[in-house]
Amino acid sequence: MKTYDETVAAIHALPRLAKTGGHERILALLHALGDPQHDRYVHVTGTNGKGSTASGIAHILVASGLKVGLYTSPFIMRFNERIMIDHQPLPDADLVAASAAADAALARLRATNPDFAVTEFEYVTALALWYFHRQQVDIAVIEVGIGGDTDSTNVITPLVSVITSVGLDHAKLLGNTIASVARHKAGIIKPGRPVVTAALPHDAMVAVQRRVAATKSQWLVLGQDFGTAHATLDGWGQRFDYQGADGALTGVRIPLVGPYQVANAALAITASRIAAQAMNWPLQPKEIRQGMLANTWPARMEKLSDDPLIVIDGAHNPQGIAAMLSAVQQALPQQRVTLIVGVLGDKDIKAMIAELEQSGVRLWLVPVPDNPRAEKLADYPDADRLRTFASWQEALAAHLDEYPDEPVVLTGSLYLASAVRQTLLAGA
């Protein structure tokens, strides 16, 4: 049997993309693993916000006494974070054992079809569903990787689906219009199963409406069927009131900043109530409050240090950059802020840099470390007149030397945020 490090290396050695975008490969692997995709799930997609929302749902359901799986991507500190039960990453030994089970299933498939292969995401998704089934979780919350309809996670039939936001990202896979992206994301809506969404752009709402009509699903929309009010900053967090069909909750607190996190919390509360009702499981207001209060999420306007004030955020597309800037304005009002930004080359860098420049922040550019997709410094828009550094470490050192009393935010990519977090919190 492989060691833990060998297991993770073997997973990462699998191909990232397949020649075809169907589900035939993962369904074959899942069938060889006993078809764990037929268990109870919540499915969450969105251009931004899906991780925080999925985590919020899991925290609420755990607080109610359920055993809850959570599958997300990418990881920030260690691979095991992607597959959690009751907020605990799967142990190293369990990852090795789960991978051995998946490898054995692959070997059986290749005995009849020597060319059978799966992508890394298909493999990890199948492994996660098998592990949740093996551990007999009561329900698992599954975050979509990219899009929705063709995503490897879209082999489940969830108790409720959630769409947190629709914006332009992954254009090569999802198209370059809001309507196209929304059609992909709406693909997670299943016949007769409810869907909870944010108040999406018009073209996205039209696409969701068509899918809802085709699937005869119940559709609950933030701002129409449920909502929030009186949101205020509360330390490095927020407090708000929630109103839904099942009653109101006043003074709900979340340890996350940014106006969008209040919307994510409302989606999480609503989806959790629907899932609990489908399971005939009692969900009390105090359990919702407890789950929301516990819902921290790494690299989303996460404060790593108070003095000096260092924040990381995984904003990696224009919509995410706009949300990050709104969070900065909320949490750090009337303060001059340095933004150290590193972006992958396959993102809409021009729109992201333009948004940042218009905000009036002090903008410094760095490469995303150790990533072949990283944009080269010389290729950044306006790199000739913006300040650039060979590494985020050099940029952070310059900020701390020149502006020691001012906050700094490192953002532009989850991979950059992950590198910063791993370095600054090493041994913490």
TrEMBL record:
Domain of life: Bacteria
Domain Mur ligase central: start-end pairs: 44-271
Catalytic activity: (6S)-5,6,7,8-tetrahydrofolyl-(gamma-L-Glu)(n) + L-glutamate + ATP = (6S)-5,6,7,8-tetrahydrofolyl-(gamma-L-Glu)(n+1) + ADP + phosphate + H(+)
GO terms for MF: ligase activity
Keywords: ATP-binding, Ligase, Magnesium, Metal-binding, Nucleotide-binding
Keyword field contains Phosphoprotein: no
Residues covered by the Mur ligase C-terminal domain: 300-413
EC numbers, comma separated: 6.3.2.17
SUPFAM superfamilies: MurD-like peptide ligases, catalytic domain, MurD-like peptide ligases, peptide-binding domain
UniProt-listed PROSITE patterns: FOLYLPOLYGLU_SYNT_1 (PS01011), FOLYLPOLYGLU_SYNT_2 (PS01012)
One Pfam family per UniProt: Mur_ligase_C
Family the UniProt entry places it in: Belongs to the folylpolyglutamate synthase family.
Protein name from the UniProt record: tetrahydrofolate synthase
Originating species: Lacticaseibacillus jixianensis
